[in-house]
Amino acid sequence: MFNTFKKIALVASVAAISACGFHFQTGQLIPKELQTISFESADKYDPMSMAMRKQLQMNNVNVVDPRSDVPVLRIHKVSTSDEVVSVFKQGREAEKVLIMNVNASVRLPKQDAHEISVKVNRTFFDNSRAALAKSAERDVIWNDMREQAARQIIAKMVALQHQIKTTK
């Protein structure tokens, strides 16, 4: 009886959500002034640059060639490091914190650049007995961190909306 009620409640909630036109927002929060931008980085095939382009596409931001009438998003520096957090009894590293810092800026036409700084941390359990598996896991974690940093940069671009309106 209780399982039947759960199933009916689940079906009803899914039907209600789909019937009301619910959908995830993609790019609707980004200010109109930043819907078309030029993206610059030192290496356009760098993993961070690729992650940033992917997030811009997912948020319906048009990336165009550099022009004087569009804002410019520039990735200045991406730095990565790791710190040992805990060790095994034998003195080997057990757990690390992976740290990624990204410095970027958004320059609006005929205005100063607005600096954006993002820091992403993740913990990583480092077991030397499974070195190959941990190496692959570490690569996956770094890729996730790049995606998260790109999402944070876009979130900070949305926060620039107030500064854009006050400078006009």
UniProtKB/TrEMBL annotation:
Signal peptide: none annotated. The keyword Transferase does not apply. One of its GO terms (molecular function) is lipopolysaccharide binding. Pfam families: LptE (PF04390). Keywords: Cell outer membrane, Lipoprotein, Membrane, Palmitate, Signal. Transmembrane segments: none annotated. It comes from the Bacteria. It is found in: Cell outer membrane. Together with LptD, is involved in the assembly of lipopolysaccharide (LPS) at the surface of the outer membrane. Required for the proper assembly of LptD. Binds LPS and may serve as the LPS recognition site at the outer membrane. Component of the lipopolysaccharide transport and assembly complex. Interacts with LptD. Belongs to the LptE lipoprotein family. This is LPS-assembly lipoprotein LptE. It comes from [Actinobacillus] rossii. The gene is lptE.
